[in-house]
């Protein structure tokens, strides 16, 4: 990962909501737009990579029979588990082994730019190999990431590694964009 584990821990050093998900009108609008971007009303199993404190999970989980969130930071996962007790939360620092559950929805919200280009390519290939029929939803931050790749550059790496998928831009604001690819079962 282009960002170190200690850097991620430092983000949460002063609390479990460093981006003010609970109080930010921008974040709340983005969560509603993310939910609205889904192509179905119901999913069997969802995986959110970089679930943070579970703020987005609270919007997604009611649409899913099961929800799994993965994040590198224990503080975030404890907050996520508290926010969504019925969810399954796994600590993992990408790149890492992904859960083996059969998912039909995979959400990557503002996580890709934390990875370098090779890690993004490997992640995309892993997802495609394991869950070729899953709907993929990518939310990409459009501001300065302070990382090697911007949100759009990291999204371009991800989509390029999945040449059989067609990603559609569903929403673009000044701050973020939402792109979706549906799998074979959802086409």
UniProtKB/TrEMBL annotation:
Residue stretches spanning the membrane: none
SUPFAM superfamilies, per the entry: S-adenosyl-L-methionine-dependent methyltransferases (SSF53335)
Enumerate the UniProt keywords alphabetically: Methyltransferase, Transferase
Gene3D superfamilies linked to this entry: Vaccinia Virus protein VP39 (3.40.50.150)
One Pfam short name: NodS
A single BP term in Gene Ontology: oligosaccharide biosynthetic process
Sections of the chain in a coiled coil: none
- Which CDD domains does the record associate with it? AdoMet_MTases
What are the protein's GO molecular function terms?
S-adenosylmethionine-dependent methyltransferase activity
Classification via InterPro entries = SAM-dependent_MTases_sf (IPR029063), SAM-MeTfrase_NodS-like (IPR008715)
Name it: Methyltransferase domain-containing protein
Originating organism = Pseudooceanicola sediminis
């Amino acid at each position: 990962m282009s960002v170190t584990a200690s850097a991620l821990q430092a983000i949460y050093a002063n609390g479990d909501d460093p981006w003010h998900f609970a109080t930010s009108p921008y974040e709340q609008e983005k969560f509603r737009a993310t939910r609205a971007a889904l192509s179905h009303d119901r999913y069997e199993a969802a995986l959110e990579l970089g679930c943070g404190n579970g703020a987005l999970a609270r919007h997604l989980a009611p649409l899913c029979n099961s929800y799994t969130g993965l994040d590198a930071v224990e503080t975030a996962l404890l907050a996520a588990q508290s926010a969504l007790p019925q969810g399954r939360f796994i600590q993992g620092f990408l790149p890492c082994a992904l859960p083996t559950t059969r998912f039909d929805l995979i959400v990557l919200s503002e996580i890709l730019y934390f990875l370098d280009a090779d890690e993004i390519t490997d992640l995309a290939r892993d997802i495609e190999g394991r869950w070729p029929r899953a709907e993929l939803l990518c939310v990409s931050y459009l501001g300065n990431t302070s990382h090697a790749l911007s949100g759009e550059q990291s999204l371009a790496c991800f989509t390029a590694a999945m040449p059989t998928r067609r990603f559609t831009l569903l929403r673009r604001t000044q701050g973020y964009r939402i792109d979706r690819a549906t799998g074979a079962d959802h086409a």
